[in-house]
Amino acid sequence: MAAGSFDPMHAVRFDLSSGSVRTRGDRVVLVPATALDDIALSAPAEAVEALGQAIGSAIGRRAASRMGDPQNASVEAFVTQLSGEAALAGVGMLSVERWGRALVVLIEDSALPRSMLGPLIRSAIEVACDRRVWCAPLSSDERTSRVFVGSELGVGRVREWIASGLSWSEALVKLHGGRSS
């Protein structure tokens, strides 16, 4: 399959006789989003992060297997496969924005708790491209969440600037040496 297209054919298999659901070999369980919300509200932050990472790792592993060589895939091909796998997992519509050299992942219409999205994105990208990345949540409303993906230093700076009162967009401009207004 070409890395620039996403073919969901046979990506999810329901075996009613054995009561199992599989996605490209992984056994999965369909869980109501309200149950994940309850977990996010009642479990320790580390447990919620671990769950987000586990979901993201599975998405990244499946996306990488579709690309063959994720290291040499174009950004468009990489995003196509990652967003397709995220959609199959019920995460929502995933896309990217480029802010200069900064990469921002948008997740629209996600059924997942917002606290899981940063760990999910980080793990998906790390597993898919076998490279360490860091993430910082930038903004969320009832429909869209944005997550900045970058180096440890860049993410740390963006977090500090947002905590000091800059908007996330001003923080990204400042990260590239621009002036924030």
Tell me what you see in this structure:
This protein has one domain: 2-Layer Sandwich (Muramoyl-pentapeptide Carboxypeptidase, domain 2). A four-stranded antiparallel sheet has the order 4-5-7-6, sandwiched between helices. It has a three-stranded antiparallel sheet with strand order 1-2-3, with no helix packed on it. The protein is α+β, with helices and mostly antiparallel strands and 181 residues long. The radius of gyration is 17 Å and the shape is globular. The longest helix has 23 residues, at 45-67. Helix content is 46%, strand content 22%. Strand 4 (93-99) and strand 5 (102-108) form a beta hairpin.
Brief synopsis:
The chain has 181 residues and is of the alpha+beta class. It has helices at 33-42, 45-67, 75-88, 114-129, 152-163, 168-175, and strands at 12-15, 20-23, 26-28, 93-99, 102-108, 134-140, 144-150. The strands form 2 sheets. Strands 4-5-7-6 form a 4-stranded antiparallel beta sheet, with helices on both faces.
Write the layout of secondary structure elements.
Layout (H helix, E strand, L loop, with lengths): L11 E4 L4 E4 L2 E3 L4 H10 L2 H23 L7 H14 L4 E7 L2 E7 L5 H16 L4 E7 L3 E7 L1 H12 L4 H8 L6
Antiparallel strand pairs: 1-2, 2-3, 4-5, 5-7, 6-7
